[in-house]
Design a protein that fits this description.
The protein contains 27 helices and 32 strands. It is an alpha+beta fold.
């Protein structure tokens, strides 16, 4: 391990750049085995006399000239990752000619090849793999780009900004000219060259600008891009209506690429997407896929203002753009679908991904203070907890106040690279709100606990609510100060109606919502004129990312599950009850006692199913039991076999009691509008398929036959995939035939075939480990393709019953895979390392197994700093 591999960088060491780059002209000369890049940049010294330091990795330097004069090697210093010129004038032009090899670039950073298409990924530090440059987000400049390539092989030549012209060079090659009038950091640079199909549409902004919209994909697949196009148009209109933000270029392009480390990238005017988040029609994509595409297309479009027009001063501020933009895409999805269901989905994701991260060895603040690899900043904490910090701001000032603050943010900072403090100030100051204490959410790691106690005095009609906040030590943060925590609250009477609140400490935001703000370690809130003992509904909509420690009476939780006026909290109460039941069932399994399920919960679910006022989509969420990840957070020990036994017992009890109801639901919604993309129909299908999954808990071959029939006759991918997933965990004789049939149909379509890998990775069968191991050698599996790796290997690590079972050498297998993948693509390998986040909660024998494998991986001299940083934390 080299010193550089283990070297940390710190926020406290940040200094502004010594030079401004006034403009850049980039010329790309693309060939089959290399690319020649000429970068001509105009520099202006901010601190004259300082050396010019440029980053560059895996570059062959061909020539270097300053103000037209060639520099000799004695006039600059070049290392494996940098180039420095000791003496430069105050104003100068630097021309750098480099040679790069995109075809050999397996890291998928910088310029690389995906199938036969050249494409780029420059966030966070990929631009340095294209040319020597000040590769940092606070260097914003204007780019002019030319791309020269073989006309037949690469008819499509794209870059950021506006099209200038296409020139035929007359030698079988052509040249495209692009100009971006807006300043941007180099991480937003993009280039695509290939032979691609395209669909086109247009959008007219409120000010009358006609924007040409294009979505590119491999030939034959472009017709599956229309949902992405419609999602883009919805996003553009929503941003105008909600935040008054209009698009600022003549062209907006999306390109679907098969080999991509992340989901998508917001490059100015030229978004590059993972194919799985663009390609969709009813026959090849599930309802979940359609929803994800709508959300991610919106996310990348919203970055045009929150990320591109206003960017980050350094990568420690990443949540400034990502947290804010995740919040915006969540709000958009809520408006496009059901707000309560969307909030449930977002909170489930937050708890499973971010709360786990915050409780593990890689816990870090929303604005980190140090890192070994900038790539490791792209976490659930930065994105999802960051979004919750923004949501808390909106909760405190209300939607009207938040819009006022957003307007101020763009007024102050358009065209700048700024910080989270700048954003907080822009929201707080126009609303007269003090966010001094609130900003601790950015600087302190961990998930706070809010401990609830209550007292009601029937004589003076006073209700006392006492809240304490507690924070556990996290790596690097042994002590913390009190957070500023907004809590949406309600008190319900015995009929389930809201009691009017009278208290000096309640706050009403600009929308009239009622909340209390916890600022001290311990506070008591006195509510007067409360006519009867109320039932508390607190932390509505999860108004703060905290763990609520509340020993609520079980009867109150059942009351809230049935009658709370806040749908999110109805479902939250059901989850709390289910977690208590799971805890009892896990203990019973561990003590070898019978697993008995509380009949009251079974009946409560029956009431939910019978309630015609509730939407099918909401009923479906009420039936989703807490995941194994949530159980692992709750329990002291991650006992995978006990988790599985408890889940099986609870699901079987519900299935047995409500067999007829589930059958009725299935028959009611089966094959109704099978090709509809209406969110309401999505809800019908989800409820129907959950009902089918419960029916499979019963040992009834006729019910398994329904699954086989659904697989054979399905008119959409949602229904067919659910059937395949159920068959994958079954002993049905049709299982191998279904798997063979699906593979035969989709083996040439990697986006769809990844569903086939995932279905097998999540199987509860005893042969799943061997199946997954064998699939890594399957002709359709490409270990260099991130989507393949995530679909099979990351999914397998989330199959707790098998992955954490003492029966299989799964940890050793994963370690082997991490080492193999890390050699070629450190970003993808690092994402697999998250599987070891729960190491401290494993039973002793499993913990020792995991630690042995972690040590083996860390001992590798060649291990990337991406994986090393994450695994060393686990040790």
């Amino acid at each position: 391990m080299t010193t550089k591999q283990s070297q940390k960088i710190y926020l406290k060491d940040y200094t502004k750049p010594d030079f401004e780059v006034e403009s850049v002209v980039l010329n790309f000369d693309l060939h089959e085995d290399f690319c020649r890049v000429v970068a001509t940049s105009k520099f202006k010294a901010v601190n004259p006399g300082k050396p010019l330091h440029l980053e560059g990795v895996d570059l062959e330097l061909l020539s270097l000239s300053l103000n037209g004069e060639a520099l000799s090697p004695s006039q600059y210093t070049k290392t494996d990752d940098s180039l420095e010129i000791a003496k430069v004038p105050a104003i100068f032009e630097l021309k750098i000619e480099t040679k790069i090899f995109p075809q050999k670039n397996t890291s998928l950073e910088g310029l690389y090849r995906s199938n036969e298409t050249f494409c780029t990924q420059c966030e966070a530090q990929g631009f340095r793999k294209i040319t020597y440059f000040m590769d940092r987000p606070d260097v914003m400049t204007k780019y002019a780009v030319t791309i020269e390539a073989d006309k037949k092989k690469y008819p499509v030549l794209l870059s950021n900004g506006d099209r200038v012209k296409i020139e035929d060079l007359g030698n079988g090659r052509h040249k495209a000219y692009w100009n971006d009038p807006h300043k941007k950091p180099c991480y937003l640079f993009a280039l695509v060259a290939g032979d691609l199909g395209v669909i086109r549409d247009e959008f007219t902004t409120k000010s009358g600008r006609k924007v040409n919209l294009e979505v590119y994909a491999a030939h034959g697949k472009q017709e599956r891009c229309w949902h992405a196009m419609e999602s883009l148009k919805k996003s553009m209109k929503w941003d105008e209506d909600t935040f008054g933000l209009q698009y600022d270029l003549n062209d907006y392009m999306i390109v679907a690429i098969d080999d991509f480390n992340a989901g998508a990238m917001e490059n100015k005017g030229l978004n590059i997407f993972n194919s799985r988040l663009v390609l969709a029609d009813s026959h090849s994509a599930t309802d979940t896929d359609f929803h994800a595409i709508e959300s991610v297309v919106a996310h990348e479009y919203f970055h045009n203002w929150t990320g591109n027009r206003v960017t980050v001063s350094n990568w420690f501020q990443l949540s400034l753009k990502e947290g804010l933009t995740v919040f915006r895409d969540q709000e958009f999805s809520g408006d496009m679908n059901s707000r309560s269901v969307q909030r449930i989905l977002d909170v489930d994701s937050l708890r499973e991904r971010q709360f786990t991260e915050d409780a593990g060895p890689n816990s870090h603040p929303v604005r980190p203070e140090s890192c070994m690899s900038v790539d490791n900043f792209f976490t659930a904490t930065i994105y999802e907890k960051g979004a919750e910090v923004i949501r808390m701001m909106q909760t405190m000032v209300g939607r009207k106040g938040f819009r006022k603050g957003m307007d101020e943010y763009f007024k102050r900072h358009d065209g700048q690279a700024v910080t989270t403090e700048d954003f907080a100030a822009a929201i707080s100051e126009p609303n007269g709100k003090d966010f001094t204490q609130f900003r601790r959410w950015y600087s302190q790691a961990g998930t706070p606990e809010v401990i609830v106690s209550e007292d009601y005095n029937p004589h003076n009609k006073e209700y006392h609510l006492t809240l304490a906040q507690k924070y556990h030590p996290t790596p690097g943060y042994p002590e913390k100060k009190a957070f500023h925590i907004p809590l949406l609250i309600g008190l319900l009477d015995s009929q389930g109606k809201e009691i009017e609140l009278h208290s000096e400490k309640i706050v009403r935001n600009s929308d009239g919502q009622t909340l209390i703000e916890l600022r001290e370690d311990l506070e008591t809130y006195v509510f007067r004129l409360v006519p009867e003992r109320p039932v508390l509904s607190i932390l509505r909509d999860l108004s703060a990312p905290v763990n609520l420690k509340w020993d609520a009476r079980l009867e109150d939780l059942y009351f809230l599950m049935e009658k709370d006026t806040d749908e999110f909290n109805r479902r939250e109460s059901a989850q709390k009850i289910a977690l208590r039941l799971f805890s009892d069932l896990i203990k019973a399994h561990q003590s070898k006692s019978p697993l008995k399920v509380d009949e009251k919960f079974v009946k409560a679910i029956g009431k939910i199913l019978a309630d015609e006022k509730l939407s099918p989509a909401f009923k479906a969420q009420m039936l989703q039991l807490p995941s194994d990840i949530l159980l692992a957070q709750q329990e002291d020990v991650l006992d995978a076999p006990a988790f599985f036994a408890a889940r099986k017992a609870l699901r079987r009890a519900l299935a047995a009691a409500h067999k007829d109801t589930f059958a009725k639901i299935y028959n009611q919604y089966h094959d109704v509008e099978p090709l509809s993309r209406d969110p309401k129909v999505f809800g019908h299908r989800l409820l129907k398929n959950i009902a089918l999954s419960f029916l499979q808990e019963l040992d009834d071959t006729s019910l398994t036959e329904i699954v086989v029939q659904q697989y054979q006759t399905a008119k959409n991918m949602t229904d067919q995939l659910v059937a395949l997933e159920l068959l994958c965990s079954s002993g049905s004789s049709y299982r191998p035939k279904a798997l063979e049939d699906f593979h035969q149909k989709w083996h040439n379509d990697s986006v769809v075939l990844n569903k086939w890998f995932t279905a097998q990775a999540f199987s509860s069968r005893k042969d799943t480990f061997e199946t997954v191991k064998n699939l890594t050698q399957h002709p359709s599996f490409n270990i260099n393709n991130p989507n393949n790796v995530y679909a099979l290997l990351r999914s397998f690590t989330q199959n707790y019953e098998i992955f954490h079972s003492p029966e299989y050498p799964a940890y050793e297998f994963l370690a082997d895979m991490i080492l193999k993948i890390d050699e070629k693509n450190p970003q993808v390998a690092a994402r697999l390392c998250a599987a070891f986040n729960f190491v401290k909660k494993l039973p002793h024998e499993m913990k020792e197994r995991a630690l042995t494998q972690i040590r083996r991986v860390v001992a590798s001299e060649k291990l990337s700093k991406n994986s090393r940083e994450l695994l060393q934390s686990a040790l």
